[in-house]
Structures are given as structure tokens and as C-alpha cells.
Design brief:
Helix 1 crosses helix 6. This protein has 12 helices and 8 strands. By secondary structure, the protein is of the alpha/beta class. The chain binds S-adenosylmethionine.
Length: 289
């Protein structure tokens, strides 16, 4: 995947295959992690996907949902969900954030999960059944073509998925379309801060598992603003250390010590917030008809 020249459809094939296998691993009782720097036998120490949820949250979901967890943040902890809200999780995987959201919004609210990988959807359905939650629905589809109507969702969450998409503008545009006016975008994703040379960036992104590449922080803000969002903010929730990626980088023929200055602190898990303006805020006197 060096060089980042995969077409959008090829990206999807690679992602589907990779996460299909991860779902099957989770079902056999293994942790599903397939991205990040941990070697196969060292998944407990994966610095990207491990220790994202507190003990209270872990107790709210079936073990299978925890094993299938492949995020890089904890969007429901930060999204300030309220009773009665409708939440959509883009790339919901085994469903952990959908189940947590469903509990936050309660029986008068609804939590949708959207994923394109059949094996992940099967794991998510099993987790829904085990959790006994009725305000949950998993949809099959692509985050670039969200199968929900305009203005129908209060909060969009996502956990380490937008970096996998080969068409991030389209994803953000779709998120804006389905959000109600005043709706919130509350997403965890890998983000790159500052200038990192292309070759190193590609290797670090492979290590983190970002199939189509992480956005730079300014790029992310610009894309959200272009789609129409306001109140945009990116907060670092985890900063990846070059030391964690040492073995992987060595395998790529790169010397972590030599790269440290350029890379240390550049790769983060970010919590990205933005709001879809209300009609009153986004319209001039003549455009609200
Ligand atoms: C890194 S995993 C994250 C799963 C989940 N959010 C979590 O925190 O455990 C990525 C998930 O997104 C799904 N996915 C990736 N690209 C997608 C796309 N373009 N459309 C729909 N689902 C996608 C994959 O099938 C996979 O289940």
C-alpha cells in the first residue's frame, strides 16, 4: 500500500477483507486487532486500540463487543449524548459504540450503526442480541452513501473509520446531509499534526492502520468548513510515540531514532467536534424559503 495510490474501490476491498478477518478472529475468542504496531502475539499491548473504555463502559457491553473493538478513541464518552437523541455510528464494526450510545439515549432515542463488512455486521447483531437493547439498528452500507434521509440524525459518531475512506469529502458531506440543523459531528479519528515527510507519513499510517491515510489537522478543519460545519475543534486524546512504532518502522527499513524529531507528537488520536448550523444561523433573510 506504499505510495497511497489505491483507487477508492480498491481501498474498500482491502478494508472489507481486513475487517472481515478481524471480525472472524473476535468470534473465535481472540482480540480482533489487526492494525497498529502490536505483533500478532502482543495484542494486549496495542497502543492504538487498547484501554479506550473505562471499567463502567466495559461492563455495559458483551465481551464479544470488547474483543471486536478496533477504535482509536471513545466518542460516546465525549459526545454528550442526551435521552431521546438519534445517533449514527459511521463504520460501527462490532457495535461497541452503538451499544454504549443506545444506553445513553435511552428507550426514547435510537442508535444506528452503519458498516459495509458482512462479518462485522454479524458480530454487531450478535452483540445487539446479547445486550437485549431494542433501540439499536445496524445498517449495511457505505459511509460515503449513508442510507438515511436528510436531517434525520442528532449526533454522528465514528471511531477510527474516516481515515480508512478514500473519499473523505464525500463522507463529511454525507454526514452534514443526514444531520439535523444543530446536529453534532463527534468523531474519533487519527490525525496528523504538522509537516511530516511523505515516506515517513505513509509508514506511520500503515503502522496505525489508516488504509487511505489520515488527514492533517488543518485539512480536517478545512474539509468540515467546506461542507458547511461550524464550531469545529480537534482535541488530542492520545499521542502516539515513535518508540511504539520502532519495530514496525525497522521492518520498513526506517530508523526510529533518526526519525524521532520529525514524527514525535505528530500522530494523534483526535476527538473532532463540529456542528451543523441551525437554519437561522446559516441563512440570510431571503434563503430560508
Ligand atoms: C477500525 S474498524 C472500527 C470499528 C468500530 N468503529 C470500533 O470502534 O470498533 C473500521 C470499521 O469500519 C468499517 N468501514 C471501513 N470503511 C467503511 C466504509 N467506507 N463504509 C462502511 N464501513 C466501513 C469496517 O468494515 C470496520 O468494521
Amino acid at each position: 500500500m506504499k505510495g497511497r495510490v489505491m483507487g477508492t474501490e480498491h481501498v474498500k476491498e482491502v478494508v472489507r477483507e481486513k475487517y472481515g478477518q478481524a471480525a472472524l478472529r473476535a468470534k473465535t475468542g481472540a482480540a480482533s486487532s489487526c492494525c497498529g504496531g502490536a505483533a500478532a502475539g502482543d495484542l494486549c499491548c496495542d497502543p492504538i486500540t487498547s484501554s479506550l473504555y473505562d471499567a463502567g463502559q466495559e461492563g455495559e457491553v458483551p465481551d464479544l463487543a470488547l474483543r471486536a473493538s478496533l477504535g482509536c478513541g471513545n466518542p460516546t464518552a465525549l459526545a454528550e449524548l442526551k435521552q431521546g437523541e438519534t445517533v449514527l455510528d459511521l463504520g460501527s464494526g462490532g457495535g461497541i459504540d452503538v451499544l454504549l450510545s443506545a444506553r445513553r439515549v435511552g428507550p426514547t432515542g435510537k442508535a444506528y450503526g452503519l458498516d459495509m463488512t458482512d462479518e462485522m455486521l454479524a458480530v454487531a447483531e450478535e452483540n445487539k442480541r446479547k445486550s437485549g437493547l431494542e433501540n439499536v439498528e445496524f445498517l449495511k452500507g457505505e459511509i460515503e452513501h449513508i442510507p438515511l434521509p436528510d436531517n434525520s440524525v442528532d449526533v454522528i459518531i465514528s471511531n477510527c473509520v474516516i481515515n480508512l475512506s478514500g473519499d473523505k469529502d464525500r463522507v463529511i458531506k454525507e454526514a452534514f446531509r443526514v444531520l439535523k440543523p444543530g446536529g453534532r459531528f463527534a468523531v474519533s479519528d487519527v490525525v496528523v499534526r504538522g509537516d511530516v515527510p511523505a515516506e515517513i507519513r505513509t509508514s506511520m499510517e500503515l503502522w496505525v492502520g489508516c488504509v487511505a491515510g489520515a488527514l492533517g489537522d488543518y485539512e480536517y478543519v478545512a474539509k468540515l468548513a467546506k461542507a458547511g460545519f461550524d464550531s469545529i475543534d480537534i482535541e488530542a486524546t492520545r499521542v502516539y510515540s515513535i518508540a511504539d512504532a520502532r519495530t514496525f518502522l525497522a521492518g520498513e527499513g526506517l530508523d526510529a531514532d533518526a526519525l524521532a524529531k520529525q514524527v514525535e507528537g505528530a500522530f494523534i488520536s483526535g476527538f473532532i467536534r463540529a456542528t451543523k448550523p441551525t437554519a437561522a444561523a446559516c441563512c440570510g433573510p431571503s434563503c430560508c424559503n
